[in-house]
Structures are given as structure tokens and as C-alpha cells.
Amino acid sequence: MRRKMRVYIGIDDTDSPSGMCTTYVAARALKAVEELGARAIDCPWLVRLNPNCPHKTRGNAALCLPIEVDRSEFPSVWERVLEVVRELADVGNGADPGVAAFSEEARPHLLPFYYRTVREIVEVEEALELAERHALAYWRHGEGRGIVGAVAAAGADLDTLSTYELLAYRRREMWGKERWVDPESVIRMDYLFADCTFDNFDYEKREVRLTPHTPCPVLLGIRGTSPEVLPQALSVLVLGEPYDFYQVFRTNQATDLHYRPSSVSELRPLTSAVVRGRVVGRPVVGPGGHVFFELDDGTGRVTVAVYEPTGSVRKVVLKLVEGDLVEVYGAVKPKPQGLTLNLEKLRVIELKPLFVPRAPRCPACGRTMESAGRGQGYRCDRCGYSDPRAQKVPVQVDREVTPGIYEVAVSARRHLVRPLRLELSQRVTSSPGSGLRPREEG
Ligand code: ZN
């Protein structure tokens, strides 16, 4: 009997702003190695890394092919993957691909690096060192930033790969042309698969969210919580062109994995954080409809930015007042005036009772009194009662906002952010290590 081995092949940075998509390269590489006798032991992994990374092309995703091969076949499988990467990577337009293969036994050594690559900015040297020490084989082109994602993806924690995405690819002659998917069919699909898919349609902006707007080979993507239903969801869609083929990926999307609970004083640029604190002053609307407010948690103060594309969550933010206790989820950006947190999700925890000064009620008949003139107290129009020393009294008013979680518009949501729809309909595996959510029972 021949000895089988499990191999995890990470691939990253094969795309550029002008074309290609690493998911396509991975899907094609998988087909190629299956022809050599390798067997997929899981869906290929689509691993989202730090969305604030300045080096990213678009969504900062890396890929991993988890396969089983005969030990003696590994060298030819490895060469075949490199052939596909070399053939498809858009190196002429700045892609810097990296590929790295690891055994099952090596994966635990990569785990801390995986978490750090999702949450921080890591150095190429760290990835190279891990590849040097633990990889069965690795390869990189040019400066090889792609090695970072390749190592991180191969080291991904299975528990964090709790959602799926089906990607349908276009025939080659359609690359770069406009895409069309019938919006009515998307809404129908979204309704039929409401409990197991998400981010299909932005009802606030009346916009299909399945199709990218780049010249890449992807026709559309459907995100969901189970791999089986995604092809069924695809079959409901009315497409403007036949797709070439589709591939279902297992992903860490929609897991909130990138957030780290943090105090204001601990905030670092280009990371994502969850900060709990109290609102200072009142939120303000700036030019372009962007909303800003100050948050204080006792260790410091940070500006929270709620940009116009985030949609109606801004209306909730504008209802907040001084002293309200909130939790903000977002990306930490360096700005000339200090660090700013770009809001991705908001939890309203505790609302301060709000009092506004109002004219007093008449003690005789109960009607609201009228001012008798500046400094001359109030009088009642109905019964004639007057009190020259009466003053405005604080009256508690409705806050017009309730405690709970609020999210940004679907079209403004980042891949790693967990949609509320998932919290409401179905519990997916929690995100271990983030410290944000206890694991659900059952
Ligand atoms: Zn009266």
C-alpha cells in the first residue's frame, strides 16, 4: 500500500487591480492536481486577512488547497501548482505571488501567525522564516509579499473557517466585460435561502451584492453557512451569460475574527478593534453626510467616523447623546488629528435619560403655561394663574433609539464582519481566540 499524506498548499498575491483573482488560480490549480491523482480533503479555503493591510490588492484574501496525495507524488503535484500559478498570476501588473506547502504536522506551528496576519500587519521575513523552517516546499516571485498570505492560509484555524462562498467564474471571452444578474432573481434567491445565505442584496441601496466590479474572472459569489445549499441558490439566479464553472470555498468571512477588544490607549493604526466607552458631547454631521463623534473609555478619547456609505446606521448614531454607553467595532486609521475608528458595527448598551427644559405646567389646571416675558415667569392662558418666579423645568423625553446592535449597509460591509442576519437566523461556529463571543452550546 502506498503512503498517503495530507498537504496544505497556500497561495497568495496572484492578482492585481487590473485582473485575475487568486480564488480562480486556486480553483484551477485544484483541478490540475486532481488530474494527477491528488484528492481534496475539504473545500479549498478562502482566508481573509487583515482588511487594513496597505499592501492588499482588493479584499486581502489568500487561498489554501487541503489535499491528500501519495508521498511519492508530492513533487509532481507541487510542480503542477507552480505551473498554474506562473501561467495565471498577473505579475506584469504588480502581482507578487507566493506559494507554500505544509504537512498536517507543521500546521500548529503556523497558527499564531495566522491570527496575527488577520489582526495586525506582519513582515515578509516572519513568513519566510516559518516557510524555511516548516514548509515541505515554498516558492515566491519578485519581492514575494504573497508568501505572507500563503503561509497564513495554510495555517488557518479550522474552527474559524465557518462560512462558505460559492464563486462562479466567467468564460475567458467574457473577462473584463460588464456583468449582469437579474436583480429580481437575486431577491427571490435571497428570500428562498434567507436562513443560510447572506449579503446577496442591499435593500437599503437597491443593489445586487453578488457581482464584483473588477475585470477579474469572477462572475458572482454567493456567501452562506452551508456548502450544500449554495449550488441550489445559484440555480435560482437568472444570469446574463453562462458561467464556465463554479467552486465552493470554505472561509473565515463573516466571523468578526479581525477584531480585538481594546481600550482607547491600546489602539494601534491598521488594526481592527472593539472599544467600549461613553459618548462625549453630541455626534455631528460633516460635509458629505459623514457623521463623527467622540468616545471616551477612561484611558483616552477617540474619534469615531461613520462615513456616508455606511447608510442608515448614521441616523442611529445621531440620536446618541453625552454619556451613552456604546461598543464600537471598526478599523483604526491614523489621521492628522490622531487615531480615528471607522465604524463597522455599533452596540448601544445603555442610554442616558435625556431631559430638555420645557415650560412648566399650571399647578391649578395642568395646562402648559406660557412665558410672561423674559425674567417674568409663566402664566396660564386657560385659567389665568400666573407665577412671576416660575422657570423652565427639565422634562424627560423619548430617546428614539433602543439598546441593541446596529450594522452598516450591506454594500459597506467588509468580508470579515459578521452580519446581524447570521446572529438572528443561525448560529455559526464562534470565532475562537477573538475573546468576543463565548462558544455557543449545541
Ligand atoms: Zn391653569
Describe the structure.
- This protein has 442 residues and is an alpha+beta fold.
- The protein has 9 helices and 24 strands.
- It has helices at residues 22-35, 74-88, 107-119, 124-134, 146-154, 183-192, 229-236, 313-317, 420-425; strands at 4-12, 39-40, 45-48, 61-70, 98-103, 137-140, 163-170, 197-198, 201-202, 207-208, 218-224, 243-251, 259-261, 272-285, 291-296, 301-306, 325-335, 338-350, 354-358, 370-371, 378-379, 386-387, 393-397, 404-407.
- The strands form 5 sheets. Strands 1, 2, 3, 4, 5, 6, 7, 8, 11 and 12 form a 10-stranded mixed beta sheet that branches. Strands 14-15-16-18-17 form a 5-stranded mixed β-barrel.
- α3 (107-119) packs across α5 and α4 packs across α5.
- It is elongated.
- Residues 426-442 have low confidence and may be disordered.
- The structure holds zinc ion.
- Zinc ion binds at residues 362, 364-365, 367, 380, 382-383, 385.
Main beta-sheet strand count, sense and barrel state: 10 strands, mixed
Number of helices: 9
The count of DSSP E runs of length 2 or more, i.e. the number of strands, is 24
Terminal CA distance reads 40 Å
The percentage helix is 10-25%
Beta content comes to 25-35%
Mass-distribution shape = elongated
Heteromolecules bound: zinc ion
Radius of gyration over alpha carbons? 27 Å
Query: What integer is the average pLDDT?
Result: 91
Structural class: alpha+beta
Uncertain spans, ≥5 residues at pLDDT below 50?
426-442
